[in-house]
Amino acid sequence: MKCPDKGQLLLFVEKELLPEENKRIISHLAVCPLCSRAAEEVQNHLAFTTAKMSLLTPQGSSLELGEQEKVWSKINQQIKADKTGRRRLSIMRIKKMAAAAAVVMALFMVGSIPGVQTAAANFLQVFRVQKVDTVIFTPGDMASIEQALNQGNGSLNLDSFGKIETLGKDERISLQKSDLANLGFTVKIPAGLPESEINYSLEKIPVVQITPDVKKFNSFLQSLGSTNMLPETLDGRTFSIKMGDTLEIDCQDFLLYQGKAPQLEVPAGVEVKEVARTLVSLPIWPDNIQRQLEAINDWEHTLVIPGENSQKVSINDRDGILLSENGNQVLIWQDNGVLYVLQNKTGHNSDLMVIAKSLR
Amino acid sequence: MHLPKEVIELRQGDKQRDAENFFNAEYTALYRYAVYLVKDADTAQDLCQEVFLRWFNLPSPQDIDLPRAWLKKVLSNLAFNHLRHQKIRFRWETDTGDSAVPISVDMKKDLTRLEVEDALSSLAWKEQVLLKMKMAGLSYAEMAEVMKVSVGSVGTMLLRAMQKFKTAYEGKEAGRNEMSG
After folding, report:
1. What pTM value is reported for the model?
2. Reported ipTM
């Protein structure tokens, strides 16, 4: 064996080498006095630096603790700001956006296959998301929507719309790779990653049911200055949004979620388009938002994800949305009835498009 | 998607308390580490704030085995990036900024500490950060991640930094001995 370089000797001294490399060095040192001395020298350097620098180490110093409470209150404010959905982007936020969308009468979340009725529920129309789309807004837009909403009577809350309930618990279960075959959809996994670095878990997402109180809601619309109203026939009818179970694939640098595309169940006789038209025409939307909403002509098919920095992208010929904020990126797309959400972990910058295209 | 607002609000009371307890338990150590790396109290505070925010924004922090190591690693990353952007100013501002932190009151220790700081400041900024991370107990894998190099390169860089440090420190010592003798 040729002589190892000194950097490697440091790793050896620090016990950072793999067992076989370690053995090789030990047997080399036994026969090479030069390296043997070099290893000693490396050890001396390490000991010297450690001793001297211990004077600087964080534990070895007493210092003023700089306003811990102030930092905590800043963090708290920031977390609250995050909850309003303005700054940071995370999978949780996307889920919250989806929930908020549900509250706005399923406007932002409507299924596909118009008119397909399941045999089991002849009185229901079942729609499944087939497309993702985005509405791009600026912080100014948000402020102006908020202002417009505040001009309405009373505050905007869940009660303004009627009854919103969830069925089932949200829970998370760890999975083995062998469980993936039984999820009811074909699981896709990023190519070229060592098995040991991947963790699987299943998140059960409750069904959300919305039963609008049309009178209340219409009077709210009226107070906003809207001339279009929801049809009286919606009153007391129940809409459900089913997300199904979502598989979380936790890789070293990123998270990949996948599950059957969300599904909306609408009572027979309800015209999704009509409901959407009413909501799109609300006077609360700034012009550029309204134009974007009007451009979505296919509410039955489309999952709309609002974002400040979103762009439409194409993944293996499927439309997707790439959201980015503060250096965090989230990629969302739909393929063959499965909705995918791909997100970098904090501090990582993998190219999400490349990973998405590598799914097998 | 998840739960209705009422349920989320109920849970938030508990979550809020948990979050605050976690912050209080971890802040001191993290702040000290931040000051040690960047030598500036304001920057250290900002870095800590950002690290905790990222922690509280994790989709599932319960999956992280060693929260303290995670905090330290993310802080190292942020500090490294911060210093990279600051490196030109950094050279001029070593230890002189308004918010530089007074570290101790023990005079004799202070003198030696100043010598150590002095020797350290003659190294490239990357070498300084690397040595500090090493001495603060980061693993080779963690240092490699922060520096975006392989573990092997960390070995080489670290050794070179230690050699330079020793030479610089002993040079100063030699200078002092000559003056006194």
Report:
1. 0.46
2. 0.72
